[in-house]
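Problem 12. The chain below contains 287 residues. Write out its predicted structure in token notation.
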Amino acid sequence: LNRLRGEAKFAVQIGEENRLSSEFYQPLHSTGRFFVSPILDVLEVSTDGGSFGDYNVDLFSGGIDLGLSLGRWGELRCGLTRGTIRARARESSSNLPDLDFDRGGLRALLIIDQLDNPNFPRHGWFANAELLNSRESFGADRDYDRLISGVFGAASSGRHTVLGSVEYDSALGTDLPAYEEFSLGGLFRLSGYAPDSLSGPYLGAAVLSYYYQVADFGTQIVSGVYAGGSVETGNVWQNSDEVGVDDLRWSGSIYIGVDSYFGPFYLAYARGEGSQDAWYLFVGRSF
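Solution.
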């Protein structure tokens, strides 16, 4: 948009989560090393029972980041964030109260992205770490600290690809409010369990997946078709001293994936412990 190559970015998402987001990415020098980035985000989602009951949730958030570009490696950001959450009980849970929360604080985000394909990668790795420092002095309802982190990697031989990921999310020092707790369940996140059916302030998960490239069309509409499966383990915990491997839950899936112009498309069957199973018709990135 200007001589320093500023960019305006907009994204619309329709599905289980309806989302409208925008970002203005403005380099501060011709080298592009440092940048500033205001962000606005509107999210609408239904909780469909689980730990929180049946709510329609609207989240409005905004912020501004000061960042350092790491070239072809990724980026580091630090900034201010502010938001409001409005949760309205659905008719099926009319006995539940309406809820309103304010969020605000400082955050730091590091992303390293070396994947060759964001949808069905065949080589490379990806790592992220985000630290949120919520404070009443920035408009939040309460003080707390939260860490989100993960590592993902892919390696291939011919048409065969193996992927692995590890995720660890944690409250730091103090309990998290319910709306900031982490969740498991859904495709490739203990696939045999309903989406977001497990929640808590501490989360650990690992996934080992394999897929075979059935077809390579090389077109913009459909570039490839894949068949594969996954083995997944993880859990959420309510207290830090409970975190461990003794009570990990297990799940697995088999799937057909299509790398398309509209994003990755999955048709999958999954099974978890206790004869829990699920079918998925899913469009969107899974990591």
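Discussion. The radius of gyration is 20 Å. Students who got a different answer should revisit the alignment rule from Section 12.3.
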